[in-house]
């Protein structure tokens, strides 16, 4: 503050950085009256911090917090999927020879996913995670309103989700039993259908329905 007014970022950062650049000889030729422009800017420092955070294994949420981003895709510009957990998950779904299951699995195995879709997923993969797997639906396809692990052609899952799949299977079977005791046949059918679908996903992943198996 100066005399009750906020000092501008230009005064606080850009001006002294430009002065330092000129003193150090880090100046591009040209500019008004023959004065050159410094090769370093406040934005360049900001970009360096974001890149160093990513390269040293910082979480995407950490990068977002430090840089003040509200969009994950903005943080991924710096990270370039440098976050090791995101990179591991990405390879587990989209990498060669990945063990996957779900309606989208064949499309991924056959390499028939359009380049534009792969580009979007590369940048936004952090946002595709669901309770039991990943949704590969693109923004242009509109909102999704289906039961993701039953009918959605964009759903895919990996062995890492096996514990969640088993837990959801147990919940569905408990609900089916409760519905049967109440005489709610349609509910019994619905919950058993979900349980059977999860059984199929686990089988496709080569995972047992029960962890002790």
Q: How would you summarize this macromolecular structure in one to three sentences?
A:
Helix content is 53%, strand content 4%. It has 213 residues and is mainly alpha-helical.
List keywords for this structure.
213 residues, mainly alpha, two-stranded antiparallel ribbon, two-stranded antiparallel sheet, elongated
Please provide a written account of the structure.
It is a single chain. This protein is mainly α and 213 residues long. The chain folds into two domains: 10-16 and 38-82, no CATH class; 97-208, no CATH class. It is 53% helix and 4% strand. It has nine helices and four strands, in the order αββααααααββαα. It has helices at residues 9-24, 42-55, 60-67, 72-79, 84-94, 105-109, 115-124, 162-182, 185-204, and strands at residues 27-28, 37-38, 134-135, 155-156. A two-stranded antiparallel sheet has the order 1-2. Helix 3 crosses helix 4 and helix 8 (162-182) runs antiparallel to helix 9 (185-204). The longest helix has 21 residues, at 162-182. The protein is elongated. The mean pLDDT is 80.
